Amino acid sequence: MTKELICILCPLGCKARFEVNGQDISKILGIRCKKGAEYVKQEIFHPARVLTTTLKTRRSGASLLPVRSDKPIPKDRLIACMKEIAHNTVDGPVELGQIMIKGILDLDANIIACRSLP
Amino acid sequence: MLTKEVDLAIIGAGPAGMGAALSAHEAGVENILVLERAENAGGLLHQCIHTGFGLHYFKEDLTGPEYAERFIAKLSSSNIKLCLNTMVIHLRADRSIVAMNAEWGEFRVLPRTVILAMGCREKTRFGIGIPGSRPAGIFTAGLAQKLVNVDGYLPGREFVILGSGDIGMIMARRLHMEGASVKAVVEIMPRVGGLIRNEIQCLRDFDIPLLLRHTVTQIYGNDRLKGVRIAPVDDNGNPLKEQERSIDCDTLLLSVGLIPENELSKEAGVKIDRATGGPFVDEFSQTNVDGVFAAGNVVQVYDLVDNVTFGGEVAGQNAARYINGEIKKGAKEILVVIGEGIKSVTPQRITGSGNIEFAVRVKEPLENAELTVGEYRKKHKVLSPAEVVKVKLKASDVAESWESGNVTVACHRLKGDV
């Protein structure tokens, strides 16, 4: 089956075309650089995204703390991570980059604070 | 009335204002006052919790709050005076400012230079004239972004988003992740308005329907929005009424463009370019009003915050040079003319005594293209209206234009394949 995927690494937006047979892919056509070819392979087999969302706080003046994953999370686990994060609340002072949830859902990624709360 | 005499007053503490303040401070300006309407410095960055910030400035992929905090930390460890919760109500041609806050009441600022850094605001429903009733449930995308990301409210359950600017697409993803249903993103143009990476990572990743060449033709509902009518458009952008259909939704978000916020600029006599919606500036970011500089989205709406910071830094450095008497109004100026394929260019005039960095926005996407500034030419694999193109030149690169008094910026497709 021929599939198409657009590379997002630069504004060129190359259209990759490739054949998929289970775990095998044919030569990737239409990509103009090495980085793009790497990206497309990653996208085909292990698509992952950095998750950005918010955590509830019990503090006055800042009802939410912006947070993100410190590593990309597999795309099909993003919604599960959102549900897990919704169960958490922040109390104390927070430093920028502080780990708020360690190894979320047993993934190799932590949820970290994107701002400080003094 | 309390009067403050300062070397530099900056209106707005978003990314442009912070960049300007820090670079002016670094260039030796002592007495800097930054006036900010909100309760925090950082502007819109606080609600932009997604990544994509700082790729150029820090060579890192940061969220908006992370990007803001780096500058806020620098600001607070300097002796730059930051006035929060402070509203500027007048800016006069003699650069005097009238502002107010709870601490000082109404007060006057007499600065030697001013940097305008007020940013931009969103176009509303009334800016694009959608017919229908006026129920609750119609928001600009940026307002919804603040409600969801800062205040913790989901403003609806079933959304239609009109316009595919970056904020609209980013909100589509955000709402989906928070459990709302995004029924469609409706775009009148044949392509998305924002960056390609947002089309992929915000819409396609979550199978959010994108309807290109469509628009909203009617709004329904009395107390609360009940639904919208949408229709495809012809080549002139006119809706094809016979193909209209309804989508039930309780909320409509508008992501239909941003306008530089220049009410204060106009009061001071700053001339506004219709192509950008912002002040005419020279290569020092100085407006037509002596000693009044402008930076960031108040000059033209940028796509990347990194470029807003860079613009702020240019204005800050040049405000410092102005204070030191190093910038004199030149006897002669070159006018920058918008040529074929170009939507807007800044700076719009050149005095010829410094390096020039043009920020060019093209009208249509072009592959295998050439961008020209007078006799200067540069090849580009791709030019996209979603991304401002920067062109750095020396005054000597446009030397031949001194005869004619103007230089044309244009772009065209080169013959042959990419």
Characterization of this structure:
Chain A has 118 residues and is an alpha+beta fold. In chain A, 24% of the residues are buried. The model of chain A has no long low-confidence stretch (mean pLDDT 88). Chain A has helices at 34-45, 78-86; strands spanning 2-6, 15-21, 24-25, 48-49, 52-57, 64-69, 73-74, 89-90, 99-101, 111-113. In chain A, strands 8-5-6-10-9 form a five-stranded mixed sheet. Chain A contains two helices and ten strands; from the N terminus they run βββαββββαβββ. By secondary structure, chain B is an alpha/beta fold. Chain B is 21% helix and 33% strand. Chain B is built from nine helices and 27 strands. Chain B has helices at residues 15-26, 64-76, 125-128, 141-151, 166-177, 196-203, 263-267, 305-323, 401-404, and strands at 2-11, 32-35, 51-53, 62-63, 81-83, 87-91, 97-101, 105-116, 120-122, 138-140, 158-162, 181-187, 210-212, 214-220, 227-232, 245-248, 251-254, 258-260, 292-294, 334-338, 342-346, 349-350, 356-362, 366-373, 376-383, 389-393, 406-413. In chain B, the strands form seven sheets. In chain B, strands 1, 2, 5, 6, 7, 8 and 19 form a seven-stranded mixed sheet that branches. The longest helix of chain B has 19 residues, at 305-323. Chain B is globular. The mean pLDDT of chain B is 92. Classes of the chains: A alpha+beta (118), B alpha/beta (418). Chain A binds chain B through residues 6, 8, 11-13, 49-50, 52-54, 56, 63-64, 66, 68, 75, 78-79, 82, 96, 114-116, and chain B through 46, 49-51, 61, 63-66, 68-69, 149-152, 177-178, 195-197, 200-201, 205, 381-382, 384, 386-387.
SSE-based structural type of chain A: alpha+beta
Mean pLDDT figure of chain A: 88
CATH fold topology of the largest domain in chain A: CPE0013-like fold
What is the count of helical runs of chain B? 9
CATH fold label of the largest domain in chain B: FAD/NAD(P)-binding domain
Residues in helix, % of chain B = 10-25%
Count, helices of chain A: 2
The multimeric state of the shown protein is heterodimer
List the strand order in the largest sheet of chain A.
Answer: 8-5-6-10-9
SSE order of chain A in H/E notation?
A: EEEHEEEEHEEE
